[in-house]
Queue: 3 jobs
Job 1
Amino acid sequence: MNETWQMYVTFALLAFAIAPGRKAARPAQLALLVGFCALAFLPISSLSLAAWLRTYIEDLAITSVLLLGWVGLVRLRLVRPMSQVRRWQIFATFSALALFLYPATLGLTYFDPYRLGYAAGPLLAALALITLCLWLLGNTFGVALLVLATLAYAFSIKPSGNYWDYLLDPFLALYCWGALLSGLKQHWTTKGACTNLAIKTAP
Amino acid sequence: MAVWFAGSREGGADVEIRAAKYSATDDAWGQEQVLATRSTTETAVNKHIRKLGNPIIALTPNNRLWLFYVSVSVGGWAGSAINAAYSDDLGESWSAPRQLVTTPFINISTLVRGTPVFHTDGGIGLPVYHEFLGKFAEYLYLDSEGYVIDKFRISRGKHSLQPSIVPLSPTRAVALLRYAGDGPQHVLASESNDGGRTWSRPRAVDPNNPNSSLAAVASPDHGLLVALNDLTDGRYRLSLYGTNSRMTLWQPLIQLDQSPDPEGNPFTPEVYREIIGDKFMRSSGSQRGGLLEQYLGHLDQRVCSDSGCEFEYEYPYFIRSQDGLYHLVYSWNNSFVKHVSFNEAWLKEQLQ
């Protein structure tokens, strides 16, 4: 399979996700997306803009590309934003996977969890269990993310033969951890404020 | 065939991956050729490339020549990724390089330095190391087409890199590692008894290692031959050692190259020019004598600094060819690649 498709898709979706003008009408949003698709191929010093972006972020995980696609669909008002609970379930899932993978694979232990992604039987079984949990929680989007990433791995649509590279990348990990921690901080701040209020108003 | 990187300085934008072929019949090296540049790599891998380095080359049992080298897109050497290319006509033409995906962390920080091992199933064992938050050694397992299908950790932490792996039997192998930690600096050794799948925790062995690369091959008596800087500091002497398979007995065989000063102290530029000119002539032979003045005219910061000019013999690469000869190449004073070869008879004499 041509291995360059992903950098063009990533460039267009990422640019569309962070570009201003969210309140513009749908045709204008679509035009913006088409514009970013064309911009991805623009050559600068012998490399396309998409290749320049890839220089710094490599090929994102399939889950990240799907999340960017979802953000694009929300922006085009083709789907409704996810509820906060569903989002937290997804953040928690990827934060846990990142905590399992990164510290050990960066040399903390003799055990390298990245290895589990090559002969991926046990990792596939673990992800099947996580997918089942998300399904039982009614998180259809979370289920779709993991199932599509697994299918992408089965069809080897990326240059990597490692299952992890379809599931997770450092940017997704950082985003999920950031969102989770800031959400927790907000939760405890609100809870603390409520407790103080209760103490003050008690007879 | 030998490969190296060359340019105005290590990490320079003009660094290229170059090669030359050795003719055993003529006992001479042919013209240099360029195998990869930043530009050719950039086009092939669809990424900006800042610098190139650490090429290695190896011939598979079915005569496919593999070239592996690192490229950096962002940052220093810690941002390296490994590129692979092959030739099915002994180096006349090459495939486009392809980047190996070796880590989940934006595919950075895997470097190659040691000789690959060819497994009986056609797989390629590639000794690599990680150099980002830590420094540790790994053994990548590639299929016969050069795709990564597994990887095995040899060490962990921040203190070991650049493994040199020597297969001693179909299942047993030894990895010798460069030590990059504090305290007493010795070569580290790790062993595998299952074809490279698991490795023992590295232990220090006898020779010193001043945080410098080393190279090893199997010897006919089922031990190892190791080229290394057996020094506590600097790289002013490169020695060849023989050791048994358990690495408990080490025998110095020959000092391959060394500074005239036994402590490796620097020389004034004037004295240095005289000594290195003489060494150049003895290493190169009369046919390259015409290049001496040109070489001496370009002695620069690679060998001389404010404190003086130093001798450095480093980064050995060691193979045993199919005709039974041993070939060792190493960096000679950051200026040339020096080739040394010897046969079994010479080795037997030294080992007695």
Note: The radius of gyration of chain B is 20 Å.
Job 2
Amino acid sequence: MSLRMPAPDPAVLSARAEVIKGLRRILENDGVIGDDESLIAYESDGLTAYRQLPLAVALPRTTQQVAQILRFCRERGVKVVARGAGTSLSGGALPLADGVILGLSRFNRVLDIDLENRVVVAQPGVTNLGITEAVKKHGFYYAPDPSSQIACSIGGNVAENSGGVHCLKYGLTTNNVLGVELVTMDGEILRLGGKTLDAPGYDLLGIINGSEGMLGVITEVTVRILPRPQHARAALLGFPSVEAAGQCVADIIGGGIVPAGMEMMDRLATLAAEEFLHVGYPLDVEAVLIVEADGIDAECDHVLALVNDIATKNGAVFSRLSNSEDERLRFWAGRKSAFPAVGRLSPDYYCMDGTIPRGRLAHVLQRMNEMSERYGLRVANVFHAGDGNLHPLILYNANEPGQLERAEAFGAEILRLCVEVGGVLTGEHGVGVEKRDLMPEMFSEIDLAQQMRVKCAFDPEGLLNPGKVFPQLHRCAELGRVHVHAGRVAHPELPRF
Amino acid sequence: MQTVTREALRPGSADDIQAALLDADAAGSSLRVIGGGTRRSMMGVAAASMRELDLSAISGITNYEPEELVLSLRAGTPLHEVEAALAERGQMLAFDPPDYAALLGAGGARTTIGGIIGSGFAGSRRLSAGNVRDHLLGFDAVSGRGEKFRAGGRVIKNVTGYDLAKLMVGSWGTLAVVTDLSLRVLPRPQYEATVLVEQGDASVALAGIRTALASPLEVSSAACLADGRSAIRLEGFRASVEERQRQILGMFESRGSVRAIEEAESAALWRDIRDVAVFASDARVVWRLSLPSLSAATVVATIAKSAACTALYDWGGSLVWLAMEGEAPAGLVRGEVSKAGGHAWLMRAPVGVRERLATAPPLDAGTTALSRRIKSGFDPQNRLGDGPFSFGTNR
Amino acid sequence: MQTRFSAEQLRDPHLAASEKAIRTCVHCGFCNATCPTYALLGDELDGPRGRIMLMKDMLENQRTPSAETVKHIDRCLSCLSCKTTCPSGVDYMHLVDHSRAWIEQRYERPWIDRMLRGLLAGLLPYPRRFRFALAMGRLFSPLVGLLPNIGFLKSLRAMLELSRAPTGAVREGIIAAPTVRKARVAFLEGCAEPVLQPNIQQAATRLFARMGIEVVPAPGQGCCGALVHHLGKEARSLAFARANVDAWSRVIDDGGLDAIVITASGCGTSLKDYGFMLRNEPAYAARAAKVSTLARDVSEVLAAHELPAVTNPSGLIVAYHAACSLQHGQGVREAPRRLLTEAGFQLRDIAESHLCCGSAGVYNILQPDLAEALRERKQNALAAVAPQVVATGNIGCLTQLSRGKAPAPVVHTVELLDWATGGPEPEGLSRRT
């Protein structure tokens, strides 16, 4: 593992038995894991390239228990890493040797289905899909739908500001969350937002979304639900080149159409998904595009007719409209399983998540192919075409010495390219540990200092999920003015990883 | 940097702002960020040592890429310039930025994009298209410490680092002075229509609106007007709008007299609703209540028992504009609103009333303490003042 | 996922297969979402992904597992819901089978646990012994209420309660052989099912006769071996498998077979795996593979032919409970549902249909608390659609769902199909309220 994490606090490591005892007391002997043989199940989240056994795992059931655990840990200087379903692809829930994993998996109840106000209040461990399931029979759904929606938790969605295949039209998590209950590191329980469409004061709720578990532990989430569209139909399009598919996407947006979803897969990703689900994706094309329209019939017909024209103009060689809800869902099921399905092509993959301006797609893909040859690693591409969010999956074999390091270097180069063309390092998976050391590609020391000041306002001792997002650790007290003079940093003595 | 009056500073660049902050530091005074001045009254009476930082010289569109759905511009750009540029390419700011100049008695003042971002109030389309906060992708700013920084980016999907853009929206320039920003823009709907329904009282009207909102007919805005009519707006491709309009008309036929208005007539109605034109020409105190929509009519009815008031409901009932005669019974209004899980802004009030009451909704102790720590992180010396808030470092 | 097996370890075919399964896992966590024990316990250790980590650690390091590890692997129902969910195609079934055998060989269980497992392995697979035990159980079952509901006694209680399960009688009369022979099949007669519900295979036989499918006997067969297999008693499960392969091979060699029909889907998963289980035994590999390719759930056989005319459309509201062994183990999902609809029943979909009912072989005896929680959850889901009858394709589920607060009588899918096409009303239905 080439990744450096904050040095463990020897005092905490030696007090491990005591910490476990204290946690057992708070949780009344139910849901504390302290033996190394069992802790191995918690050594990583969805990013297995990095692993670390935690000090202990605690699985509380109530907000009060969360508050007690946080207070207890703070008093003893014990770090805490919150964990939802453990599906992060950026290592957001990677444990620390001297830190407690606070698992929210037992917070798995939907608390309030409020159809009149069109909101659902759920505990953070409820899965993303679980919310939709809870309101489906009433004709509603929860719009953000990350591909891992079957498993990922709504609390984790908030922490990472998860996206999905429909966020071009319906927004990311942050645009659909109206309120949270949050416990800060000092054990204080805060309620931010609620069932209203805006909240007073500074937008603390907005900051919590995407804060990667570093500001507080979410114990309740209020989300907006939407009436399920009368109809949704998807067009499955195949193109002889990625460029043609990219141009089709640009022309659709340029034509004033905002489809409900617009996703692209390259040949390799299509192959993997097809092998798993036998959707009927064309395998003799270079790029597959799924474009979905939703709404009343007149809307779907109109949009899909426009899309079809644009696709034909751009040389589409395959075109199929979903003829039933079942078929539409199968178009998507293949796409949503594309990541893990790539597990069929390669034992390991490293998933990137940069966003680029849509117009630079062809350029970026071409550069990526060059890199692929240079690094000797295959890359499969899954792409949220509508919003420019790329997911190159670098295929490697972790059992081959040196391949992980090559994959990491390849990944970093892809992300630098994203920034170079005017994009960003991560569109929806979060910085975590994975992109942490690349943050200076996008932000100066001063830019990062502003973000850290927010962190310090919530967690001045830096006990919540340290080692994530920020490429270096600042003690809050030393975070006065970060002056950079001619490339020199003000506090060279601060630990850097 | 040129000085417009003895008091106001008119910086032309981030460097000018940095210099102004350093000067204020040295003088122990503070600055108040102002765009077009539409909402100046909501910031309260300025202290003698406070100088206005007028951003009108930091203006203009810097990069507009319609095919990427992104617009970058400078904070002092007047809203009408932005809208004209967007309209030329068939696009819009989907959060429907309001113009409160008339409502707040700032006739002649020109709303700027910076003011829209700083105050964070969205218009009627918030119901379907999101809030102001949902459309700011990235920005450049100078913090109260005098540090130039940037956050976010120019793409829609971005979780690289904390979402500081959210923190800037609605912070009234009390944390940092935003100089440049990038906004998400969307195609302007091809066609619009509004169904108007005359039916019973507000609670009946709002129940009808909730039915429409629970339907899959993609209502983009929904209001219950001060005269009791409900307005339900549909936007999109013409064929789709006409079909949905037919279905909405059918839904309300049995509930009262219905009719539909289209295009310019519909747009004009929604401009008035968004800008609260109905209360613009009188002198009453105006509150802005944000409520769970189901509670709106009840809260208003409870308040109305003790104080005569007129209500305009927007956002399907979730936003209530309340005009009241005479004194502003803040305890009553804020008490009822907070019992229902909402909050209330005092939007318009005579200076005397404004001095006694908090303009911004009060926060609980925990959130206040946290907000204060955020404020001191960005602006420890309170060089940028408290704006309409009362959790600043000096109070 | 990265693994650290040595080249020498990988020469062991069992370890090599497990390594491959672990290697395929990308740790995405989708499996947890549909795992019954994860749903109940909310602990990574009680979901497939965590169990894979435990098994990986145990096998990689050639470890004698700790009591904790054994606890979490024991809690796995082997329902294989994870197998359906897994996009990467991890072979969880063989991995957990291998691990159970590994544990059985190396881990010393508390004596009371050993005794219980020994008792189950010694009774259930043998119809005569099981019949006798049931009779004894019925004798003592009035005492169930007196047993404290804790620890081992809870398992004993669950066992005694089994003796109270509804049973069917052998009906009078000889079923005529079909006049036109469309196919020739043999049953897996099984062990527990013929003791508890002999009427199920009778119903199937009647249906087959009406359809022109001839049923021939295959003497010498016994339990499929699944029961001991899931207890980790590998040698005994292989012995059962070999005996059965021998029995069916004799019939195959003497006139051929179109299918080996299984009416208890739990056994079907096992039969379909004989080819894998005996792959390293030259004397059996080919014949076992043949048996596996011939193995069919009764619903698959019915679906492949035309159902007889529906003469008695009852129109009852049926909630179909998909047995895990059928929907996840064998991937048979649509056939029973389609057949029930064709036979004139009103089929209702239930929520969380992917979840296990808690029966899972002898799981309800070994893990009574979890089994009960799952049974209640399943019965609630069934009750929500207000069924008049519940249909399922596995004797274990049938027995499990008939206990406690059953929302409706539970019968085998073929009993309903037989009834609708001219057979007698299922006995279980007479208990209908």
Note: The radius of gyration of chain A is 23 Å.
Job 3
Amino acid sequence: MPETTQQTTFSRAFQIQMRVVSALLRRELIALSGKKGIGFLLMLVEPLIFVSAICVFFYLTRRTVGNVPVVAFAMSGYCVMWGCRFQMMKMMNVVAANRSLLYHRYVKIFDLMLGRSILQICSTSISFLMFAPIIYIGLVDFPVKPYLVVFSWLAVLWYGWSLGLITSSIYGLVKMGEKICIVIMVLHIWITGAFMMVEWLPPDYRGYYLLFPMVHATEMMRDGLFGNRVTAHYSVLYMVCANMVLTYLGLVLVRKLSQRGAMDDSD
Amino acid sequence: MIRIKELCKSYRTRRGPRQILKDITCTVHKGEKLGILGCNGAGKSTLIRIIGGIENPTSGSVTRTMSVSWPLAFQGGLAGGLSGLDNLRFICRIYQVDFVAARASVEEFSELGNYLQEPVKSYSAGMRARLAFAISMTVDFDCYLIDEVSAVGDRRFNEKFKNRLLDKTRDRSIIMVSHFYGVLREYCNRAAVLDAGVLRVYDDIKDAIHNYEQILYGKTITF
């Protein structure tokens, strides 16, 4: 790679990056809220609306899935689904929308993505905490294995972040990027395991379904929430490995996009 | 000092790669003020962007041992959705400048008044240039990159800007692209002509202009 700057030490570079990301975060908040502070609230409400709408829908149709309350079942699935999909969705066009900021040498494409994803991680995590009042009013029992719930949630965020890096890079790198991203997004409605459990499938087909990393996260979430009341199939090792591979792929793509330069619209 | 070494840049086009800059080697010392002339599409803005570090060269290197501003251009550097003040706030955070002092200076210098609270996308080209200049004046750079912005400001603002910039940059550098010879004569002490991807530096601006005119009228531009 051609050398364009003086060599900066790692700690100095890290300082600059922290500064830039925090400035970007504030910028995003201002842009969202129009300075009235409603923006962040709206961001929190957005995933909440989706989750609660689906809960109400399920609640009205039937009360239990197997021996698990339907609200809990729906929430566990949808939280996982939106945990990763929201990040992908919001990170997709972040580079195009902030291109003018790249005029400042310190601002890197990766920083733009990082700022946006931090904000999304906060908003989806806070709406994930919706579980707390629901547990409190007794609609859902307290998780049998809370650590699994937390670990699964972290895995979801990690996965969403990696996929966000991938989709936002594809969006910038390929002409058909937007279309490809939409396909990936729609696919993730089905391959996160939100609608069903692996146990419901014939044993021969479970292996194929478990190829999708997010199915493991959802199963783990349900194991954490319901314990022995459901039979969960998942492998922590597989999920972590898949996430690492996806993160690596994402970083490679971001690097490719950075080298190409987002200034260059010429493809 | 900015040292550009064997810099090449090509862009991908529909009919294959097109080389814009060919093997450019050039040094700008602190205090030097370099003007760049070139026909439309010669690669002046590309060169400025590469010097500013916001675009990567295809090969070669740019070494900066002094702080270099972002390229001050018609657009870029400012977020359209944010107000002028929020843009200033963002830039102050990135470059670690005290916001309160910077705000006072921008208000005074840009004369944009209440418009500073409006989103930048509602600004006219001239107003945007005023804001970009005013903000850039609040950050101390050793070298300012200016990409033909003097064309949009009105005369009074241009004079004000010139005085401020020359005052500020007495011992600093400017790299400037302009089609106006008068502007180049006022700001620069050296000039270069960018033609067919090659940069030729002249110690006398007069020579640069003379050669540029010959190139300009000696050929029809075909892209």
Note: Chain A touches chain B at residues 1-6, 19-20, 22-23, 26-27, 30-31, 35, 98, 100-107, 259, 261, 263-264, 266-267 (CB under 8 Å).
